[in-house]
Write a structure and sequence with these properties.
The complex is a heterodimer of chains A (687) and B (65). Chain A contains 28 helices and two strands. Chain A is an all-alpha fold and 687 residues long. Chain B has a domain of 42 residues. Classes of the chains: A mainly alpha (687), B mainly alpha (65). At the A-B interface, helix 4, helix 8, helix 10, helix 13 and helix 15 of A face helix 1, helix 2 and helix 3 of B.
């Protein structure tokens, strides 16, 4: 009887998922309620978790609850700490959830709500969650080894080296791109710039408190810090209204670029307790609060999605970024569906803290479903605003022009009615001088979030506070990725440099710290600078490059997972990791090819460089702009070279893996699995 | 009524403990429990433990995009 009831309940959940998905896919004409998005996502996730993850846990991985995990065998209270599964879920989710699932779907909304929403849901269920879950399992069985170590042991030494290089490459590109998102959000906005700048002294205060006054009392310090940050959001309004202060905090893109580069260097070179860690605490609390509030706001307000399911820009001529749905939608929505970076977290701290092997399903698969839901909410927030406003905020000036009336006419001619007065009134309501050409995704997401929040609390009156709260939340979030990433990049460079010259590898030798910090900051700072001076706004070139490198890392993780599963003899079910891996290789290769060789100058790096070079030869560029144009030409060729290197790396790794797989399947080579030996758990069932 | 109150109290207590563990507030207490259980002699002070944990945490990827 109980079983029949269970089948009935799951049948109803699956039915609701199918109905909601069909509704958002087939709906045409009138705006559609966001409730359908929430229902489609939540019910699909429930079904995927109940059926697909259970299938993977039982058949593919054969999770063993009687096997002692690394946290039990090596419990030292420091690295290996048995942790309650709900707490570890929170840890893992806080680590994997970054700005990607917010920014990616917002940018992909230019195709309409449908392609992005479907990929967020299906990509997470069949690819992203699978990657996180399987890599977590593999790492648990290897005492918490990292992805690079597993690639070296299980695939080949070259595979391990490629994984390490891929991590460094993605880190540099990622940091440059996310910094560009901040610059575009803060440019010419004294309120937002002041709020974010205020978080630095607040973090320093917290750092001193936690180090010298009450060491390690994170909760009390963070709550006080969050209160100060919220006060800074309100105080930003006073700064914006004061002519003298407003002038001091109104910075150009280039000035912000150098400020962020200086911040990244300081965060990497200063002791970690002083600036980096306390900022991370602030960010974690605000992140959790803002994501929860956004979910609650969408459920309460149930806004109507005004963006059509498919826009005219499916043809590849979108103003936000150029390129057709395939492959660019799958490259743009990186982290909300699948993110290679997650495999570093799944093979980092989490496997060392997991209490039971069976918890890997809830933590690995479940946390990624939650991240995908964040992506769906970002899609709803972006698509709930008038499409004309969305395109006005996200289109660079070179596409729509700088004069508001002409730009509004261009966007209206695309079929998305807009007036310059609407944009002026919206900018005034959110306390900004202008919202035109604020590419990067963050400002449009902030407008969407602010509209949802203000409908719940405060109405029009609080729209500007909510907008700047959202901008602060996104920028704080991104700065945390930036400073933590810069520091990790510094360690990687010191480790690599230490192989050539030993003292350089000493982590506490200050000259090496300063030099390696300068190298990593210069590397991502270069990408940031080229994005800021890029005539197409930077996002058009750099976000796809970030997507390609992130998906490349996911392909690396799935190659490692497939190899391990083949060695474990799971040939029958190998399609679970093989299909998403093949899909990722196809989309990264297609996107790389198009980004390098497309004849459309808005897509192809080389054709854009050639078009600019032809303009110089034809004398179409004024003499004063020739040096700047030549720099843009060099940057485009550099981007093409970086993309080519990334593509070659994945091809080499796949070739290496195929040789391995062939040897295993043809029994030409006895597979050697590097699992730690089985030890029975000493814990009782309920522990 | 009393049962509901005690359940609420227990639930709130669990939430509070979970929050402390999630943010790292309870890390030192867990470490001390571990050193006592294993009878370790060289025990780090709260301050040393805090700095050591931070240095370890931020030397590997711990925040995703």
């Amino acid at each position: 009887m109980k079983r029949v009831l269970q089948i009935l309940i799951w049948g109803v959940v699956a039915g609701v998922a199918a109905t909601a998905l069909a509704t958002i896919a087939l709906h045409r004409g009138e705006p559609i309620s966001a409730t359908w998005f929430v229902l489609a996502a939540v019910c699909s996730y429930l079904v995927a978790y109940r059926l697909y993850s259970a299938f993977i846990a039982a058949k593919l991985l054969a999770l063993d609850g009687t096997r002692a995990t690394p946290s039990e065998r090596r419990d030292d209270g420091r690295d290996f700490v048995p942790t309650n599964k709900w707490v570890l879920f929170g840890h893992h989710f806080a680590a994997i959830a970054g700005p990607g699932p917010l920014v990616g779907p917002t940018l992909a909304a230019q195709f309409g709500y449908l392609p992005g929403t479907l990929w967020l849901i299906a990509g997470a269920a069949f690819a992203g969650c699978v990657q996180d879950f399987v890599i977590l399992f593999c790492s648990i069985r290897r005492d918490g080894k990292t992805l690079g170590e597993m690639a070296r042991q299980e695939v080949s030494k070259r595979g391990g080296f490629i994984a390490q290089l891929a991590v460094l490459a993605i880190m540099i590109i990622l940091l440059g791109v996310v910094a560009l998102v901040i610059v575009n959000a803060l440019k010419s906005s004294p309120w937002a710039t002041f709020t974010l700048a205020a978080t630095i002294p607040i973090a320093l205060l917290l750092g001193l408190y936690l180090r010298f006054i009450r060491p390690g009392r994170v909760l009390e310090a963070s709550l006080a810090g969050v209160a100060l940050v919220l006060f800074a959001v309100v105080a930003g309004q006073w700064v914006a209204n004061s002519p003298a202060w407003s002038k001091a905090f109104t910075l150009s893109g280039v000035a912000l670029t150098f400020a962020i580069i200086a911040y990244g260097f300081a965060a990497s070179a200063l002791p970690v307790w002083m600036l980096l860690a306390p900022r991370d605490y602030l960010s974690a609390f605000i992140k959790a609060g803002a994501i929860f509030s956004l979910a609650a706001g969408i459920l309460l307000v149930r806004p109507h999605v005004l963006m059509p399911p498919l826009t005219r820009f499916v043809d590849g001529n979108g103003p936000v970024f150029a390129g057709k749905i395939f492959p660019f939608c799958f490259i743009t929505i990186a982290c909300g569906a699948i993110s290679g970076f997650h495999s570093l977290i799944s093979s980092g701290t989490t496997p060392k803290m997991i209490q039971r092997e069976t918890h890997a399903r809830f933590i690995g698969y479940g946390a990624m479903l939650m991240e995908s839901f964040v992506g769906v909410m970002a899609m709803v927030a972006a698509c709930a605003m008038t499409p004309g406003v969305y395109f006005a905020i996200n289109s660079p000036a070179q596409i729509v022009g700088t004069a508001p009336e002409a730009a509004a006419r261009t966007i209206s001619n695309w079929g998305y009615p807009l007036s310059a007065a609407t944009m002026a009134s919206l900018a005034h309501s959110v306390g900004e001088q202008t919202l035109w050409n604020r590419a990067g995704g963050a400002p449009s997401l902030a407008v969407g979030m602010a509209q949802i929040f203000s409908t719940t609390i405060g109405g029009e009156r609080l729209l500007s506070i909510w907008y700047h709260f959202a901008i602060m939340f996104e920028a704080l979030f991104i700065l945390t990725v930036l400073d933590a990433g810069t520091r990790v990049g510094r360690f990687m460079i010191q480790e690599l440099g230490g192989r050539v010259w030993k003292p350089f590898g000493r982590m506490n030798w200050y000259p090496a710290i300063l030099l390696s910090s300068a190298i990593i900051v210069a590397a991502w700072g270069y990408f940031l600078y080229q994005g800021v001076v890029d005539p197409l706004g930077g996002i058009n070139s750099l976000w796809p490059l970030f997507g390609i490198s992130n998906q490349l890392l996911a392909a690396v993780a799935l190659v490692v997972a497939t190899t391990i599963l083949l060695k474990m003899g799971r040939v029958k079910w190998i399609w679970v990791t093989l299909l998403p891996m093949a899909w990722l290789v196809v989309i990264t290769m297609t996107a790389s090819y198009e980004k390098i060789f497309s004849l459309n100058p808005r897509i192809g790096f080389l054709s854009f460089a050639d078009a600019l070079a032809a303009q110089i030869s034809a004398g179409a560029i004024p003499a004063a702009k020739i040096a700047e144009t030549q720099r843009v030409i060099f940057n485009q060729r550099l981007d093409a070279a970086v993309t080519a290197v990334l593509a070659v790396m994945i091809l080499v790794l796949v070739a290496e893996a195929i040789v391995q797989w062939h040897a295993i399947l043809s029994r030409g080579k006895e597979p050697v699995l590097h699992e730690t030996p089985y030890v029975a758990t000493q814990w009782a069932e309920g522990d | 009524m009393r049962m509901a109150w005690s359940r609420t109290k227990r639930g709130l207590g669990n939430f509070w403990q979970g929050l402390r563990e999630w943010c790292g507030d309870a890390a030192y207490e867990n470490y001390r429990r571990c050193t006592e259980r294993r009878g370790l002699k060289n025990v780090l002070s709260r301050e040393q433990f805090y700095v050591e944990q931070l240095n370890k945490k931020y030397s590997r990827p711990n925040r995703c995009c």
